[in-house]
Amino acid sequence: MAAILRRQGVSARLYVVGGAAMALAYDAERTTRDLDAVVLTGHGAVIAAAHEVARRHDLPRSWLNEQASAYVPPGDDAGRVVFDAPGLVVLAASPARLFTMKAQAARAPDVEDIRTLAGMLDIRDLDRATRVCDEVMPDQPLTARSRAVLQEVFEQEPDERF
Q1: Beta partners for 85?
Q2: I need a surface site. Which of 61, 66, 106, 126 has the fewest CB within 10 A?
Q3: Which residues are registered as beta bridge partners of 36?
Q4: pLDDT of the residue at 28
Q5: DSSP structure string for 68-129
Q6: What average pLDDT is seen over the chain?
Q7: Over the stretch 105-150, which tens digit does the pLDDT of each residue have?
Q8: With the CA atoms of 44, 24, 58 and 46 taken in that order, what torsion angle do they form, in degrees rounded to the nearest 10?
């Protein structure tokens, strides 16, 4: 995609979240079927390039998924640069932001990522987890479901948790 954008004279930036951020920045063994991202600059060119990549590599046109952008907390994030080439820079959400987004989603497939991120952030209990989430998304308190998922994570024996 970077080569396509470079040939068009575009310099785009993507901010990846979800499984893609986990795979690219924090857990090399993790896989994902799509790339959840917010297109920060060069939107039209990025979408066109993504469709070209999909055509060339027999991927679904939706492999670059912008739906998660509705769930990305507002404000700057000291994301980690995971790819930097002429035409394209890709940033991954910070561990705290990913932890909060996955805690808010409270989906069963996210539990392993929550454990991984909790270990990275040295979060050892529900109280600390809640504080991190409140710092990242102060206007969106954790739901009862989110608290239940987090409680389950932190009730496990430490050796089983991380």
Answers
A1: 88
A2: 61
A3: 65
A4: 65
A5: GGGGSPSS---PEEEEEETTEEEEEPPHHHHHHHHHHH--GGGHHHHHHHHHHHT--SHHHH
A6: 91
A7: 999 888 999 999 999 999 999 999 999 999 999 999 999 999 999 9
A8: 10
pTM: 0.86
CA distances in angstroms from 78 to 39, 51, 91, 93, 160, listed in the order given: 16, 29, 9, 7, 30
Question: Which residues of the chain are under the pLDDT cut of 70?
Answer: 28, 76, 157-162
Rg (CA), the chain: 17
Dihedral sign, Cα of residue 143, residue 146, residue 151, residue 152: positive
pLDDT computed for residue 161 by the predictor: 47
Q: Where are the domains of the chain?
A: 2-93, 96-161
Q: Exposure pattern of 1-10 as b/e (b: 16+ CB <10 Å)?
A: bbebbbeeeb
pLDDT of residue 1: 96
User: How far lies 33's CA from each of 20, 60, 122, 131, in Å?
Assistant: 9, 10, 29, 31
Q: Which amino acid is at 130?
A: T
**65: enclosing H helix or E strand:** strand 64-65
Which CA distances in Å does 89 have to 63, 65, 66, 80, 143? 18, 17, 16, 11, 34
- Report the DSSP beta bridge partners of residue 30: none
Specify the amino acid at residue 25. A
